[in-house]
Structure to design on (119 residues):
């Protein structure tokens, strides 16, 4: 079973993504900001991290930066899921090492398909 961490500060988004990924056979972990993601990473190596950019306390860019510094997460796929849809934001996210950048609003079905294609 693939492990996914979903990081977003919007409750409704977390709930719908959690339901959909569990339904598709994922082991789902929920984080409300980057510090919660980093707490999970102390005890696990997920297959996928779905990361919002604009979150309180610790944003998605800072979180990705720390993840990319640790060799044990080299095979973990990181996907930004963000309302920031400016081409410069997308370019920045991909240059930082994200495997994909998905803008909100999004199709959950297409999002899951896109993640599956990364493996």
């Amino acid at each position: 079973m693939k492990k996914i961490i979903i990081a977003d500060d919007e409750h409704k988004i977390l709930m719908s993504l959690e339901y959909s990924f569990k339904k598709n056979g994922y082991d789902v972990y929920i984080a409300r900001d980057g510090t919660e993601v980093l707490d999970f990473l102390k005890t696990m190596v997920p297959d996928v991290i779905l990361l919002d950019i604009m979150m309180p306390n610790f944003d998605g860019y800072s979180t990705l930066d720390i993840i990319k510094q640790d060799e044990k997460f080299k095979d973990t796929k990181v996907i930004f899921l963000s309302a920031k849809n400016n081409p410069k934001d997308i370019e920045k996210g991909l240059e930082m090492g994200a495997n994909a950048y998905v803008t909100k609003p999004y199709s959950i079905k297409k999002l899951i398909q896109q993640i599956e294609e990364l493996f």
Observations:
- The radius of gyration is 13 Å.
- The chain has five helices and five strands.
- The chain has a mean pLDDT of 96.
- The helical segments are 11-23, 34-41, 60-68, 87-95, 108-117.
